[in-house]
Automatic annotation (TrEMBL), chain A:
Species this protein is from: Arachis hypogaea (Peanut)
Protein name (record): LOV domain-containing protein
Higher taxonomy: Eukaryota, Viridiplantae, Streptophyta, Embryophyta, Tracheophyta
PROSITE patterns in UniProt: PAC, PAS
Extent of the signal sequence: none
This protein's UniProt keywords: Chromophore, Flavoprotein, FMN, Photoreceptor protein, Receptor, Sensory transduction
CDD domains hit by this protein: PAS
Domain PAC: 110-165, 338-392
Alphabetical GO biological process terms: response to blue light
GO annotations of cellular component type: nucleus
Lineage: superkingdom: Eukaryota
Gene Ontology molecular function terms on file: photoreceptor activity
UniProt xrefs under Pfam families: PAS_9 (PF13426)
InterPro entries cross-referenced by the UniProt entry: PAC, PAS, PAS-assoc_C, PAS-like_dom_sf
Every PAS domain range: 36-84, 291-337
From TrEMBL, chain B:
Domain GDPGP1-like N-terminal per the UniProt entry, residue ranges: 73-245
InterPro entries named in the record: GDPGP, GDPGP1_C, GDPGP1_N
GO MF term (any one): guanyl-nucleotide exchange factor activity
UniProt keyword terms in alphabetical order: Cytoplasm, Guanine-nucleotide releasing factor, Hydrolase, Nucleotide-binding, Nucleotidyltransferase, Transferase
Keyword Phosphoprotein set for record: no
Domain GDPGP1-like C-terminal: 252-400
GO biological processes: glucose metabolic process
Family to which this protein belongs: Belongs to the GDPGP1 family.
Protein name, entry field: GDP-L-galactose phosphorylase
Keyword Transport: no
Main subcellular location: cytoplasm
GO cellular component annotations of the record: cytoplasm
Pfam family, one: GDPGP1_N
Length: 419, 438
C-alpha cells in the first residue's frame, strides 16, 4: 500500500514517509494561507507561547505552522518541523495512554489536555502541558485545523526529571549517557534491610531503571500553567478568526453548524490519508452518487485538482471510446451492492487516455448498511512493476480493507458517548 | 471433572460437528488440503520479519499520534482477507453486523452477531484442565483448506524484512501460518498458528508468544490486536493459536487506569489494572520485544502450570500486554453463574474481557449498557484474595527478571484519574521505592 510504483528491491519494506515533497510543501503552505492569509503568520509570530497548527486533511496530519516559542523550546528550525507529524517529538518515555487520549480526541473532533513527555532535538526530554483544540470552519462545520499549545512544566521536580536516562531512539544513537545525571543511590533506596542485595544489581546498569521510574510518571500541572494554556489558546483563536475573515473562509472555536450530511468526519479523513494509492469514495445516498473523498494518488493519476472532482460523479473519467458494456456492468454491481472489477478506458484532464483496472466495492458503516462505495484505480501499464511486493490486485483489495475498517469503526459512535 | 456446554465457534469451513474428521478424504485428494497429497504443490506468500528489533525508539514507535501510514504487513493481511471475503469463504459478512459504542465512561463496544453461532449444537468442554494433550482426532488447523490460509509468517534469516509472494510451504521447516477465521467477529479476523505442523496444544511458550508480539509490531497498527484464550478460558480448539482482528477504536481495557507495581531490569513495566471489572496485569515496554515476550510468557507458563485459566491481549503494536486470569467457566460449571447472564450465551473470552462484547440476541444488543457489561465481566474476574494469590505465584515465576518493585507509599503512578488503588502486592516491605533482587 505504500510506495505505489517505485519499489525495486527484492524485499519490500514499509517506508516511513518522512520525506516532504515540494508538492506537499505547497499543500501545507496553501492550507494555512487559503484560510488565514499569509499575513496571519506575522501576527502569530508576535504571540508569545509555544504552539503549532496542524491540518488533519493532509496525509500524515502534518504541522503547518509552528510558533517561535515552540521552535525555541524544541530546538528545531521551522523547516524541520513544518510538514512533519507531532510524533517526531515523542519517544520511549512518552506515555502511550496519553497519546491514545490525544489520538482519540483528534479523531473525534474534540479538544483534550494532557501532561506529555516530549523530546527536544538534542534528545533531552521535558514535561509539558499539552492542549489540542479543533478549529472549525464556519460553514459546513468541518474541522479545518487543530491548534496545539505546549506549556513546559519546568521548575518542579527537576531533580527527578533531570535523571531521565534515556533519550528517544531516533536520530543518532550516540551519547545517550549524556543526559544521565548522577542520582544518589541512597535516595532511591534507603531501606537498610535491602541495601545489601542491591549492591550487585547496581553494578550492571540498574541505575538507569531507577531513574526511569520517575520519568514516566505524569507531571501535574498547576492552575497557573493551566490558565496560561487557555490564555494562549484565546490569543491564537482571536488571530485565526480575525484573519479568516479576510479570506472569507471563516473559522471558529466552537462548531457553529451541524456538519453537512455528505461531509466526512475528521477521523475518517485522517484514516483515509494513510492510504497512498489512487482511490475515491462516493456517497450513494446523495443525488448521483458524487465523490466525497479523493486520494492524492487519484489526483496525480487523473490530473484533476481536488475541488474539481469532489461533488461529481466519477463518470467524467469516461470518454468517447469508453465501452458501454463495462459501464453497464458497473451499474449492475452497484445496484446489487456487489463488488466488481473491470478494465475501463478512462481519460485524464488533459484528455490523454489510460486503461484503468478499476475495483469498486460497497462499504458498510456500523449500522451494517452500505454507506459508501470505494473505487480503487490502477493504471494498467504500471501493473507489472513491483513483482516482489503485493500484486496490484492485492494492494487494491487492501485499500478496500483499510476503508472498510475505517468507515465501520469510525461510525460506531453514533450514539452519544464520551470516550 | 468440570464441564460446560457451549456452542463451539466454527473457525474453518472444514470443521465438522463434534469437531470430528475433516470433510476430505486423505491422500491425493486434489482439494488443496495441507496433507502430503497437496502440500508439495502449495504456494503461499511468506512474510519474514527482522528478528532483532529494538522495541524502543523510533523503529517501533507509533509513527503518529494519529495514524501511521499503512505498513506492509497491515496491507498484506487486509488485502488477503478482503480477497477471501470476495471469494465467499466466510459464513457471513461481518461488516453487515450492527455494532456500536455503548454510552458510558469506558465505551464498551457491542456487536449484534446472530450468525456466528447458528447451525451448531452445544458441545461439552472440559474446563478444569488448562493443559491438555493435542488430540489428532479432534479438529485442528492441519485440517483446513489452503484457501483459508493467508500467508506464512516467520523471522527472516538475513536480518531484513522479506516478502515472497509465492513461497512453497516447507513442512520440515515448521512454518507458522496465518489463516482466516470463517466466523469473524470483526473485519480482518485471523488466526496465527505457530509451527502448525508440530501440532502443539493450546499452551504458551516463549517462541510462540514472541512470534505473536512480532505480528503486532510488524502490523504497526494500534487497532490490530492479538488475543489468546487458554483452555478453560474459552479456547475451543486445542491447537496452539492466537487470534487477531481490526477494530479502529480504543478498547475499554486500554483506557483503564493502571498502577505500576514493578519494573524488570530490561525495562518491562508491570502494572495492575485499576477500575476495571476484571483484575489483571499489564506488561509494557522493555528494551527489546524479546524482553517483553520473555517475562509475559514466563507469567503465562506459570498460570498454565498452576492450572489457572487465563486470557491475553496484545495491544499497542506489541508494546502492551494484558494478562487476565479468569474463573468464569469454572463458576459456570459449578452452577454459580446467574441464569440471566448465562442466557445471553456470551462467552467471556479475551475480546469480551477487553470490552468488545459480541452479542447473539437482538434484545441484549438493544439493552446493552455499561452496567450490563460490567456485571458480566465482574463474574469473570478472580476475587481480590484469589488475585493476590495468583499474583504471588506470577511474581515468583518472573523473579529472575530482577524486578524493581514499587512499594505502596511511593508516589502514585496511576494513569488518568486517581483511584482507590489497592496497595501493590509487592514482595517488599520498604516504605520507599526499592530495588529488589528476587
Ligand atoms: C466508487 C466508484 C468509483 C468509480 N471510479 C470510476 C473510475 O475510476 N473510472 C470510471 O470510468 N468510472 C468510475 N466509476 C463509475 C461511474 O461513476 C459510473 O458509475 C459509471 O459511469 C456508470 O454509471 P452512469 O451510467 O451513471 O454513468 C466509479 C463508480 C463508483 C461508485
Ligand atoms: Zn489433499
Amino acid at each position: 500500500m505504500e510506495s505505489s510504483s517505485s519499489t525495486s528491491s527484492s524485499s519490500t519494506r514499509r517506508t516511513t514517509s518522512t520525506e516532504i515533497t515540494s508538492t506537499s510543501l505547497m499543500a501545507i503552505q496553501n492550507s494555512f494561507d487559503s484560510v488565514y492569509s499569509r499575513y496571519a503568520r506575522e501576527a502569530l509570530d508576535e504571540l508569545p507561547g509555544n504552539f503549532t497548527i496542524t491540518d488533519p486533511s493532509i496525509p500524515g496530519h502534518p504541522i503547518i505552522f509552528a510558533s517561535q516559542g515552540f521552535l525555541k523550546m524544541t530546538g528545531y528550525d521551522r523547516d524541520e518541523v513544518v510538514g512533519r507529524g507531532g510524533a517526531m517529538f515523542q519517544g520511549d518515555r512518552t506515555s502511550r495512554r496519553s497519546l491514545m487520549e490525544v489520538r482519540e480526541a483528534v479523531r473525534n473532533d474534540r479538544s483534550c489536555q494532557v501532561s506529555l513527555l516530549n523530546y527536544r532535538k538534542d534528545g533531552t526530554p521535558f514535561w509539558m502541558l499539552f492542549h489540542v483544540s479543533p478549529v472549525f470552519g464556519r460553514d459546513g462545520g468541518r474541522v479545518v485545523h487543530f491548534v496545539a499549545v505546549q506549556v513546559p512544566l519546568e521548575g518542579r521536580r527537576l531533580r527527578r526529571r533531570r535523571s531521565i536516562g534515556c533519550r528517544r531512539g531516533s536520530g543518532d544513537d550516540g551519547g545517550s549517557g549524556d543526559y544521565v545525571l548522577g542520582c544518589c543511590r541512597k535516595e532511591v533506596c534507603n531501606d537498610n534491610s535491602l541495601e545489601v542485595e542491591l549492591v550487585s544489581s547496581m553494578d550492571h546498569g540498574l541505575d538507569h531503571d531507577t531513574k526511569e521510574l520517575d520519568s514516566d510518571k505524569p507531571c501535574e500541572a498547576t492552575d497557573d500553567e493551566k490558565r496560561s494554556v487557555m490564555v494562549a489558546m484565546d490569543n491564537i483563536f482571536s488571530v485565526l478568526t480575525h484573519y479568516s475573515e479576510s479570506t472569507g473562509r471563516l473559522v471558529c472555536r466552537k462548531r457553529c453548524s451541524i456538519p453537512d450530511m455528505g461531509l466526512l468526519s475528521t477521523s475518517l479523513i485522517i484514516s483515509l490519508g494513510r492510504i497512498k494509492q489512487s482511490f475515491v469514495l462516493t456517497n450513494p445516498h446523495l443525488p448521483d452518487m458524487p465523490i466525497v473523498y479523493a486520494s492524492d494518488a487519484f489526483l496525480n493519476l487523473t490530473g484533476y485538482a481536488r475541488d474539481e472532482v469532489l461533488g461529481r460523479n466519477c463518470r467524467f473519467l469516461g470518454g468517447p471510446d469508453t465501452d458501454d458494456s463495462t459501464l453497464y456492468l458497473i451499474r449492475e454491481s452497484i445496484k446489487n451492492e456487489q463488488p466488481c472489477t473491470v478494465r475501463i478506458l478512462n481519460y485524464r484532464k488533459d484528455r490523454s487516455s489510460f486503461w484503468n483496472l478499476l475495483h469498486i466495492s460497497p462499504v458498510r458503516d456500523a449500522s451494517g448498511k452500505v454507506a459508501y462505495y470505494v473505487g480503487v484505480q490502477i493504471e494498467d501499464e504500471c501493473k507489472n512493476e513491483d513483482r516482489q511486493g503485493l500484486s496490484p490486485e492485492k494492494r487494491q483489495l487492501s485499500v478496500v480493507g483499510v476503508v472498510k475498517v475505517a468507515v465501520r469503526s469510525l461510525s460506531m459512535h453514533a450514539g452519544s458517548s464520551k470516550s | 471433572m468440570l464441564r460446560i456446554k457451549r456452542v463451539p465457534t466454527v473457525v474453518s469451513n472444514y470443521q465438522k460437528e463434534e469437531g470430528g474428521e475433516a470433510t476430505r478424504p486423505v491422500g491425493g485428494c486434489g482439494r488443496n488440503c495441507l496433507k502430503s497429497c497437496c502440500i508439495q504443490e502449495a504456494k503461499l506468500p511468506l512474510y519474514a520479519f527482522k528478528r532483532l528489533q529494538k522495541a524502543k525508539g523510533k523503529d517501533l514507535a507509533l509513527q503518529e499520534c494519529g495514524e501511521p501510514p499503512v505498513a506492509f504487513l497491515d496491507s498484506l493481511i487486509l488485502g488477503e482477507w478482503e480477497e477471501r471475503m470476495q471469494r465467499g469463504l466466510f459464513r457471513y459478512d461481518v461488516t453487515a453486523c450492527e455494532t456500536k459504542v455503548i454510552p458510558g465512561e469506558y465505551g464498551f463496544i457491542a456487536q449484534l452477531n446472530e450468525g456466528r453461532h447458528l447451525k451448531k449444537r452445544p458441545t461439552e468442554f472440559r474446563v478444569d484442565k488448562v493443559l491438555q494433550p493435542f488430540d489428532q482426532n479432534k479438529f485442528n488447523f492441519t485440517k483446513v483448506g489452503q484457501e483459508e490460509l493467508l500467508f506464512q509468517f516467520e523471522s527472516s534469516d538475513d536480518g531484513e524484512v522479506q516478502f515472497f509472494p509465492n513461497a512453497p510451504i516447507d513442512v520440515d521447516n515448521s512454518p507458522s501460518l496465518v489463516a482466516i477465521n470463517v466466523s469473524p467477529i470483526e473485519y480482518g479476523h485471523v488466526l496465527l498458528i505457530p509451527r502448525i505442523f508440530e501440532c502443539l496444544p493450546q499452551r504458551i511458550d516463549h517462541e510462540s508468544f514472541l512470534l505473536a508480539l512480532h505480528m503486532a509490531a510488524e502490523a504497526g497498527n494500534p487497532y490490530f490486536r492479538l488475543g489468546y484464550n487458554s483452555l478453560g478460558a474459552f479456547a475451543t480448539i486445542n491447537h496452539l493459536h492466537f487470534q487477531a482482528y481490526y477494530l479502529a477504536a480504543p478498547f475499554p481495557i486500554e483506557k483503564a487506569p493502571t498502577k505500576k507495581i514493578a519494573k524488570s531490569n530490561a525495562g518491562v513495566k508491570i502494572s495492575e489494572l485499576l477500575k476495571y471489572p476484571v483484575r489483571g496485569l499489564v506488561f509494557e515496554g522493555g528494551d527489546t520485544l524479546e524482553d517483553l515476550a520473555n517475562i509475559v510468557s514466563d507469567a503465562c507458563i506459570c498460570l498454565q502450570n498452576n492450572n489457572i485459566p487465563y486470557n491475553v491481549l496484545i495491544a499497542d503494536c506489541g508494546k502492551q500486554v494484558f494478562l487476565l486470569p479468569q474463573c468464569y467457566a469454572e463458576k459456570q460449571a459449578l452452577g454459580e453463574v446467574d441464569a440471566e447472564l448465562l442466557d445471553t450465551q456470551v462467552n467471556p473470552a479475551v475480546w469480551e474481557i477487553s470490552g468488545h462484547m459480541v452479542l447473539k440476541r437482538k434484545k441484549d444488543y438493544e439493552e446493552a449498557s455499561e452496567a450490563n457489561a460490567w456485571r458480566l465481566l465482574a463474574e469473570v474476574s478472580l476475587s481480590e484474595a484469589r488475585f493476590e494469590e495468583v499474583n504471588a505465584l506470577i511474581f515468583e515465576a518472573i523473579a529472575s527478571f530482577e524486578l524493581e518493585v514499587k512499594a505502596e507509599t511511593s508516589e502514585e503512578e496511576v494513569n488518568a484519574a486517581k483511584s482507590k488503588a489497592r496497595p501493590a502486592k509487592a514482595m517488599v516491605a520498604g516504605t520507599q521505592e526499592c530495588l529488589v533482587l528476587q
